[in-house]
Amino acid sequence: MKKQVKKLVVFLGVAGAFVLMSFNEPRWFDDAVDIVTYCGPNGRFVEIDYQPNKHAYYGYCECRNGWFGDRCEFMPE
Questions:
Q1: Residue 44, CB half-sphere, CA atoms under 13 Å: how many?
Q2: CA–CA separation, 33 vs 37, rounded Å?
Q3: pLDDT tens digits, residue range 30-72?
Q4: Which of 43, 33, 36 is nearest to 71 (CA)?
Q5: What is the Cα Rg of the chain in Å?
Q6: Is there a contact between 72 and 63 (Cβ–Cβ < 8 Å)?
Q7: Which helix (H) or strand (E) holds 43?
Q8: Where are the domains of the chain?
Q9: CB atoms within 10 A of CB 35
């Protein structure tokens, strides 16, 4: 019985770690797309630059604190 409880606690700990990590901004796809995001000092202005065509889109970004840095979401004008 003690062994089953120990396995259950370890399993719940690992599952809890995955749940907490899921709240972080998913950054694994950032390297696959050539997009550079710039947030201004006030956290409102953003420019997204597509490297192959050299297009720039302007809008606003809302930055919130994330687990491993700021989490910014782009909102076009």
A1: 2
A2: 12
A3: 554 555 556 655 555 545 555 555 555 556 666 667 776 666 6
A4: 43
A5: 19
A6: yes
A7: none
A8: 2-76
A9: 13
CA dihedral 74, 40, 65, 21 (to 10 degrees): 50
> So what's the pLDDT on residue 10?
92
> Which of 33, 29, 24 shows the shortest CA–CA distance to 70?
24
Can you read off the two tokens belonging to residue 37?
């995001």
Asked whether 72 and 61 are in contact (CB, 8 A), the reply is yes
- The pTM assigned to this predicted structure is 0.33
Question: Largest Cα–Cα distance in the chain?
Answer: 63
Q: How many Å apart are CA 10 and CA 37, to the nearest integer?
A: 39
